[in-house]
Amino acid sequence: MKRATLSVLTPNYNHAKYIGEAIEAVVSQSRQPDEYIILDDASTDNSLEIIEQYASQYSFIKVFQNSENKGVIYSLNRLVELASGEYIYGGAADDKILPGFLEKSMQMLENYPQAALCCAIPASLDEETGVIVNGYNLYPKEGGYLSPEQLMPLIRATNFWIATHTVIQKRSSLSSVWFLPELKWSSDWFAHLVAAARQGICFIPEPLAIFRVTGNNYCLNLRNWQEQKPIIQNIIEYIESPTYQDTRNFFVRSGVLKQVPGPYGLPGIFFLAPRNLKYSRYLTHNVVLYGIIFLFKKLLKKVLPRRFIVVLKNFKYKLKSNP
User: Fold this and answer.
1) I want to staple 75 with a disulfide (CB 3.0 to 4.6 A). Which of 11, 30, 112, 224 is the partner?
2) Which of 112, 119, 124, 125 is nearest to 139 (CA)?
3) Using an 8 Å Cβ cutoff, are 170 and 82 in contact?
4) By CB neighbour count within 10 A (0-12 exposed, 13-18 middle, 19+ buried), where does 188 fall?
C-alpha cells in the first residue's frame, strides 16, 4: 500500500530560544515527514539563522519568510498553501513533538482513512514550575477511530479536547481557509471540531507532544473578555451559516462550547445566551453543570498554592494512566 504523504508546518516569530529544539524533535522522528516547511514571520532575533542551519543539513526542510510581520493566522494559512502533503501537522515553534509521534499518528490515520484527523493526549510544560502535566483524565484508555456520534457523548462526559499541538489533519478535510482570521486563537479549535463533526477522528491514548506554557502564548489572549466576546459570537455565526450548518447538531449536542471561556473562566456562552435566543441552544444542561464544577475547582485553587495544584494534577493523571 502506498504510504500517505505528510507535511510538517511551523510558523516562527522570534523563537530563537526554542526553534532549534522544535526542529530537532521533528528531524529525529522514526517516521520523518515528506517535507518540513518553516515560515519565518519577519523575526528580529537570530531564529532565521538557526532555521537555515538546519535546512542546510536536511533536504526535506524548506524555509520561507514573510516580507513583514503578518501574524500567526496568516502564516499558518500560507503554510497550508505551500504544503503538498496529503496530511498536515502544524507545530508551533515553541512546542515540541515526542519520539514516535509522526509514526504512530500516521499509522493510525492509514488504518482509518475515513478519519479527518488524529490527536493524542496532550502534555504541557509549565516554564515557571518546570512541571509537565499530562491530561489523562479527559481521555479514554483505548485508542482508535471515533465517529462523530461516539465523540459527542465523550465530550459531554469528559470534556475531551482535540489539542492542536497533537493534531495531524487530512488536507482534504480542510475548508478553503484552514484558520479563520475572525476566530483568532480559537480558529484551530474550530477547524478541528468542524472536521471531527463531519468525518470523525483517530485518537492515540498517550502523550505525544508538549505544549509550552510561557505566559506569552497567543491563546492566552482569551482571558480578555472584550476581545473574547466577539470571537464566541463569530464562532456561533459561522456554525449557523450555510457553510457550517451541517455541524450545528454536533456543536449543540456535544456541549463543546463549554471549552471556550468567558469572564472568570466560565464558558463564554453563559454570558451571551441570555441576550440572544439563537445562542441559547448552545447553553445545554451539560454546559451549565460544567460551569458549576469549574467554579468549585476555582475556589480550591484560591486556597492552595499553584505549584501544589500542578503537582497534584500530574500525580492524579499518573494514577489514572497506571491503574
Assistant:
1) 11
2) 119
3) no
4) buried
One-letter amino acid identity for 131? V
Give backbone dihedrals phi and psi of 190, rounded to 5 degrees, phi first: -65, -45
Confirm if 37 and 64 have CB atoms less than 8 A apart: yes
Furthest C-alpha separation in the chain: 58
- Count other Cβ atoms within 10 Å, centred on residue 154: 16
Would you say 201 and 146 are in contact if contact means Cβ atoms under 8 Å apart?
A: yes
Q: Assess whether pLDDT exceeds 60 at residue 315.
A: no
Annotation: CATH topology of 1-94: Spore Coat Polysaccharide Biosynthesis Protein SpsA; Chain A (3.90.550)
Domain positions in the chain are: 1-94, 221-321
- pTM exceeding the 0.85 threshold for the entire prediction: yes
Tell me whether residue 275 is exposed, middle or buried, using C-beta atoms within 10 angstroms of its C-beta: 0 to 12, 13 to 18, 19 or more. Answer: exposed
Cell numbers that stand for 289 in this block: 453543570
C-alpha 242, offset from chain centre: 25
Cβ partners under 8 Å of residue 17, min gap 6:
94
Strand partners, 207: 121
DSSP β-bridge partners for residue 201? 117, 146
Residue pLDDT, tens place only, 30-87: 999 999 999 999 999 999 999 999 999 999 999 999 999 999 999 999 999 999 999 9
